[in-house]
């Protein structure tokens, strides 16, 4: 890029809807996001808030129909993703932008060996021979800590443990040193010990290659381990943005406060779990005013009638609330 200060990824007013016979699902409503090289931005929220749809929209993976997507800007490394043809997007995906999916078993092709799937990445995006691709794949498996990579190269996905499959996905994502990786719940199916190992590996590779990372998760412990900035999402809208330390120390939105309060702390002797009442609203029948107001203990008549804007306050922090908890 000619402007070194320009962001690697810039999103302005991204919207995604899914029209159906039963109504319109407003999955994403006006998301803004800016990401620089080497930065990790976490998008956090409960299931159904629009996190995964946002990640798929960035990579232009949503089929239209049924999805209808629009944005004022969706640019990556100087490229306008909204104007790119499918063949151009196919070249960009896997080479410059990669995704790590949450279920490694379904993300990998069950009838192809791990090695063959990895070879395809190198053969498509680097002009090398099959022999060189095999050597690169084995080396990539070795770098992510897969034991006996020469043997695992010939294994099928079902022959690997969940942790090993996730390492294979990470190896595939970093294979050709992309500029941006989107990790969609990358440790959901793993136990706590393996999860910590995978996150350490992901963070290590990200820093070594100065790769930008978008982390999609509902797990705040993962956010604390990985993120530089946090974007809290609720019912298709960003309700709070802040750097990691500020948000964890002093959340300003009642929803963010509820998410953090629901995580038990090791130094507390609480006898009951804290939980946010009720559930995320139906995306086809969202409430008037602030979408969070039916679950909010600070709700006023203003909250029931008017959607608050996302306002930037001191320190560059942003919050969408009529009565922020400052």
Overall average residue pLDDT:
91
Give the DSSP E fraction (strand runs of 2 or more residues).
15-25%
Helix content: 25-40%
Oligomerization state:
single chain
Structural class call reads: alpha/beta
H and E order = EEEHEEEHEHHHHHEHEHEEHHHEE
Enumerate the spans where pLDDT stays under 50 for 5 or more consecutive residues. Answer: none
Spatial order of the strands forming the largest sheet? 7-8-9-3-10-11-13-12
Q: Biggest β-sheet: count, sense, barrel?
A: 8 strands, mixed
Radius of gyration (CA) equals 21 Å
Number of helices: 12
Overall form: globular
Distance linking N and C termini: 39 Å
Q: What's the β-strand tally? A: 13
Describe this protein's structure:
This protein has 326 residues and is α/β, with parallel strands linked by helices. It contains 12 helices and 13 strands. It has helices at 51-58, 86-92, 104-107, 114-125, 130-143, 149-152, 162-174, 192-209, 220-226, 244-249, 254-261, 301-305; strands at 9-20, 23-35, 40-44, 68-70, 73-76, 79-80, 97-100, 180-184, 212-217, 229-234, 237-243, 311-312, 318-319. The strands form 2 sheets. An 8-stranded mixed β-sheet has the order 7-8-9-3-10-11-13-12, with helices on both faces. Strands 1, 2, 4, 5 and 6 form a 5-stranded antiparallel β-sheet that branches. Strand 8, helix 8 (192-209) and strand 9 form a beta-alpha-beta unit. Helix 7 (162-174) packs parallel to helix 8 (192-209). The protein is globular, with a radius of gyration of 21 Å. The mean pLDDT is 91.
